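**User:**
Make up any protein.

**Assistant:**
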Amino acid sequence: MSLLWIVLIAVVIVFVLILILFYNSFVKKKLKVENNLSEIKIQCKKRFDLVPNLVETVKGYAQHEKETLENVTLARSAGVTAKSVRELADANNQLTQMLSKLFALGEQYPDLKANANFMMLQNELVSIEKAIAASRSFYNDAVMMYNRAVRQIPGNIFASLFGFREEEFFDASEEELENVKVTF
């Protein structure tokens, strides 16, 4: 065997090893993104499951706040049926706004504010909100690292070769970044 063949075989082996390393790196990063998104979905499901209980509790005290209660229910439904990261983020943003208005009702109705069930549900939702915020942060960090690998040279060449595409961030809407305006 000539030296040329040995060099050629060595180059092919090195190239195959590089392909394997890049592929495995993309798979690892993609799985991290999927795992973190799964955690967001779990926390959101907990949140969506608590909303009907909260709405029922508030109904007894604030019957004329029908529009607020309906909007909370609609936002919850949108979250439960979300099919993409964007839809889930939008539904969560909408639900956050509606829950802020719902919690503001507690200030308007002293009997509701003193209700142990309302306070327990409110505290549970606040806890879940914190978990969602942490999960969102971990997810967005994983997406950033994955997207960076997909965009940077030489990773972008291998990413396109293997069919890896950028992932969406779990963003807050412009409305969520503003203070909630509650009017009665």
